[in-house]
Amino acid sequence: MISVSRAARRAAGIKGREPVYNLTQSQIDGLKKEAADAAIARAFALMLALPMMVVHDKFDRFDGLDDSGRVEAMGDLILDLYDSFERGYVTLADLHEWLSDEAGVAVSVEGGTIRVERSAEWS
To answer: Which domain of life is it from (predicted)?
Structure first.
């Protein structure tokens, strides 16, 4: 271990030792599962929100296209919306709020459970 003077630690912003926690393997596995479940739920909610928004906004653009043209056009539009999400122009909360207000569909994630249902005001 390298010894560093108190003045050097203060200058570096080091206040003390980092706390150490002891966890059992089952606790570690539980934390990993919780984190993975939350990430999966968020990703899946995003996967649902993007195509649903594109279908509502742009569906009329698909008229006159053959099947492969529709699939390609829808894929391009979804990727455009995903790019907006990645750049921070829209958030997942924005998409869910818009879908609820404009399309009457509520997408929610609660504790790893995803729900898609008609918004109350549209029922």
So the answer is: Bacteria
